[in-house]
Specification:
The complex is a heterodimer of chains A (659) and B (177). Chain A is α+β, with helices and mostly antiparallel strands and 659 residues long. Chain A has 21 helices and ten strands. The longest helix of chain A is centred in the first third of the chain and has 32 residues. Classes of the chains: A alpha+beta (659), B alpha/beta (177). The interface between A and B is medium-sized, with 36 and 28 residues.
């Protein structure tokens, strides 16, 4: 009964989504308040029924109902409860349900927190989100029903892919989806603005916090995923340029561009057309990512089911949603106007450069991701562009972009003076150049890549600090007390500083781990000692241990430095009998300066094992940088301007609209 | 007019991308050409499943077209493929030989007993050594081997009815001529 209830709820949600997506639009168009008023209740009803469906699927997993095909394919009675629940999104059907559930959460949030908007605008916003939801619900109901019965029921399930049986599976997908589905709000804002013909400073101010929230989630989601891959896949990589990773990274790049371009639109009433286009693109790339992953046109370690019927469905949906949005853009954007003019050297043009860099980076990732498909479609054979392409192209594009990050925030709006910026940055330049020579030398050897990387990382951080000092100085005469002075600076400014410093930390992490990691593949017998740097690794053998749903060979390594014990590591090799899969569970001693990473390869004769040992200097900085970026976003969101000014402006806008 | 064209550009680019995506739907990214296709199949001798003491020798297969299907009792996708193999066996057009990969004899026999046996003979590869020679990277995999012992086709993943009809049957007709 419960699965049928779930399916029935989904169907009801589908009808509510149709109502939410159509009647209110007609209502606004015909000025019919009765129809317009359907928007909020329909959206909330949709949320309730999707939530109910989600709970039903969760219950089926909880209760080990193997008469549900999806449960039987992705769970097992021996699977620990927390993974049984995470298995809800462990396969294709459930991931899609998670997608649409999170869309419903965002829609619900819009109905609750976007109250200050002019009525017609808010209704259009909710209706556009309803239309987005209609397509996805139809996709689930018609092609990917998670509640499909399996008759006769399976005795036991085929188990969740052991790769996914990890705490990362509990957090990573929901956070990541909160991010890229969250761009649907910015998308809906853009569409509503194009329909409305309203595209001004107020519009940008409304859109900004929503976009920032989505961006914060996406940043964290990608960082979680990267850390998970790092410890779970057992070869110490943290980013693989896999199609699925790219699918989340492209919206991040465009979303980052969007955050900056929205700032220009809000502050200077410029970049309007471009901002709208970015809003459309960020969400379009999220959808495209979904298509690439779900349709099976690309192979990936993350891809679940592949089915051309499903692929075709999503493709048609993409054409309707993205094609429709871009058509509306082509028709309406020319009337929007370009906004205020600005000088070649100005904050605006710096931000324009930022946008060009980020868009080019996203484009290069898109090209690399689609390239195998393009070549195959053109009959040029099966080829794949791997990390070498991405590393070369992406880095080449980002290097000048990160350099400009140091200059941009110091430039004045409208018209700035290059010599003046230069003078202000002398100190930062000196610090960065000295570090670029010093740090790589201390780490071992000076290479061009390491020097450039360290230069950029330190450059971004030092220019950010100089920016703060400058800001304090200009206010010093008015506010002589330093604490008062610091307090007086808006949180949004600190948010920007923190996020930029995060980029610097990230760049340092990437540079140092790439340049100075060491790796050894060894054959180790019991009580063998391996030496890497000043660390000694003694292998004390592996013993058999039974886990809840797997058998494990648990190794033990004592790590010492100058005969002082540094760590005891227990890497595992697990065998999951239900899927017949072997999993490597590396063990890591994390540290601010370096990670010690040990993973077991294959068992050899007489208790010997092949063993992989890595030393990963500064690898934690990669994720610490991402966390700083996300914190920066959160600080910016807490800026009082959004609470106080927002209310005032929307009241004015409301009056203006009603007048 | 010129301005409107500029604003249409994103839509045009998108539609071109859709064209490629549409075409991509009908291509199979898993169809990786194996380096072994066109090369002689590695020869092997292996114990026969369920017939203690008997050995299967791949060199004895010279002179006939045959299918080598790598499978295992622990492999879920093999169950999916099983009905297709059974249907193939019923037509009698082709001799399918199994290679039971990293498996125990008892479990493998139990599966064949329960679901039916589509194989002429099943050779066993308990430690996966033959699998290494053939470059098996996932089970199931299927090789079409011609009369001279050359691998002509490799299927990674389960054989579906569609692959059977569009790829394997035409190839067999050609090879058996």
């Amino acid at each position: 009964m419960i699965p049928e209830l779930g399916l029935f709820s989904l169907i009801l949600a589908f009808f509510f989504a149709i109502i939410q997506g159509t009647l209110p639009l007609v209502g606004v168009w015909k000025n019919n308040a009765t129809l317009s008023n359907f928007a909020v209740p329909a959206a909330r009803a949709q949320f309730v029924f999707i939530a109910l469906a989600f709970v039903c699927l969760g219950y089926s997993f909880y209760a080990n109902d193997f008469s549900v095909l999806y449960v039987a394919s992705n769970s097992n009675s021996h699977l620990p409860l927390v993974y049984r629940l995470a298995a809800v999104w462990g396969g294709h059907e459930g991931s899609m349900l998670l997608w649409v559930s999170i869309l419903a959460v965002w829609t619900m949030a819009v109905t609750m927190f976007a109250k200050g908007l002019p009525t017609s605008f808010r209704i259009r916003l909710i209706a556009v989100m309803g239309l987005v939801s209609v397509g996805f619900l139809a996709f689930i109901i018609f092609t990917s029903n998670p509640f499909e019965r399996l008759i006769p029921a399976a005795v036991d399930g085929r188990d969740l892919n052991p790769l996914l049986q990890d705490p990362g599976m509990v957090f990573h997908p929901p956070v990541l989806y909160m991010g890229y589905v969250g761009f649907s709000v910015a998308f809906a804002f853009a569409i509503a603005a194009l329909l409305d013909g309203r595209l001004d400073i107020t519009w940008a101010r409304w859109t900004r916090p929503w976009t920032t929230v989505a961006w914060v989630f996406l940043t964290l989601g990608i960082a979680f995923g990267s850390e998970w891959a790092y410890y779970e896949l057992g070869w110490g990589g943290w980013w693989f340029w896999d199609a699925v990773e790219n699918a989340s990274f492209m919206p991040w790049l465009v979303g980052t561009a969007l955050i900056h371009s929205l700032a220009v639109t809000e502050k200077r009433d410029a970049f309007k057309v471009w901002t709208v286009l970015l809003s459309i693109c960020a969400f379009s790339l999220s959808l495209l990512g979904t298509f690439l992953v779900r349709s099976g046109v690309l192979t990936s370690v993350h891809a679940f089911a592949t089915d051309p019927g499903r692929g075709l469905f999503i493709l048609v949906y993409l054409v309707v949603v993205i094609g429709g949005a871009l058509l509306l853009f082509a028709l309406r954007a020319p009337t929007v106007g370009l906004g205020e003019r600005f000088d070649v050297v100005s904050r605006e043009s710096m931000l324009l450069a930022n946008n060009v860099v980020l868009a080019a980076a996203a484009g290069s990732v898109l090209l690399g991701t689609m390239y195998p498909l393009l070549m195959d479609a053109l009959g040029a054979g099966k080829i794949s562009v791997g990390p070498p392409y991405f590393d070369a192209v992406f880095v080449a594009i980002m290097v000048p972009g990160i350099f400009l990050m140091g200059l941009g925030p110091l430039a004045k709006w409208k018209k700035a003076s290059l010599p003046e910026i230069g003078t202000r940055l002398r100190v930062a330049a000196v610090i960065s150049v000295v570090s670029a020579l010093l740090v790589p030398s201390v780490m071992g050897k000076l290479t061009l890549m390491a020097a450039v990387g360290v230069f950029l990382g330190i450059w971004v951080m030092s220019t950010s600090l100089i920016l703060l000092v400058n800001r304090l100085k200009t206010r010093q005469t008015a506010v002589p007390n330093l604490i008062e002075n610091l307090k007086g600076i808006p949180l949004a400014f600190y948010g920007m500083l923190l996020a930029h410093i995060g980029i610097g930390v990230f760049v340092l992490g990437v540079t140092l781990v790439k340049g100075y990691e060491s790796e050894q593949d060894l054959r180790m017998e019991v009580n063998d000692v391996a030496h890497i740097g000043n660390l000694a690794f003694r292998f004390e053998g592996a013993k058999e241990v039974a886990g809840p749903n797997y058998l494990s060979s648990l190794g033990k390594f004592i790590v010492t430095s100058n005969s002082k014990e540094v760590a005891v590591l227990h890497p595992e090799k697990r065998f999951y009998p239900v899927q017949g899969a072997m999993m490597t569970e590396a063990d890591i001693e994390p540290g601010v300066l370096e990670d010690i990473y040990v993973s077991l390869g294959e068992p050899l004769e007489n208790g010997a094992w092949s063993v992989r040992i890595y030393i990963k200097p500064f690898v934690r900085w990669i994720w610490a940088g991402c966390i700083l970026m996300a914190l920066g976003g959160i600080l910016a969101l807490m800026d009082r301007r959004y609470r106080i000014v927002n209310k005032k402006e929307t009241r004015e806008a409301q009056e203006g609209f009603e007048a | 007019m010129k301005r409107t064209i500029k604003f249409l550009l994103p839509l045009v680019l998108f539609l071109i991308a859709v064209g490629f995506l549409f075409k991509g739907l009908f291509l199979d990214p898993r169809e990786v050409p194996s380096p072994l296709v066109g090369k002689p199949a590695p020869s092997f001798q292996a114990p026969v499943l369920g017939e203690a003491g008997k050995t299967f020798n791949s060199d004895d297969m010279k002179g006939q077209v045959w299918l080598l299907n790598v499978w295992a009792s622990w492999c879920a996708a093999c169950r999916e493929e099983h009905p297709v193999l059974m249907a193939m066996e019923k037509t009698g057009q082709i001799a399918t030989y199994g290679l039971d990969y990293k498996d125990t004899d008892a479990e493998a026999q139990a599966v064949l007993k329960e679901h039916g046996n589509p194989y002429k003979v099943v050779a066993t590869d308990a430690d996966g050594k033959i699998g290494i020679d053939y470059g098996v990277y996932g089970v199931p995999e299927t090789y079409v081997i011609d009369k001279t012992g050359v691998i002509r086709y490799k299927q990674i993943g389960p054989i579906t009815e569609e692959i059977l009809l569009t790829k394997i049957v035409p190839l067999l007709k050609e090879l058996q001529r």
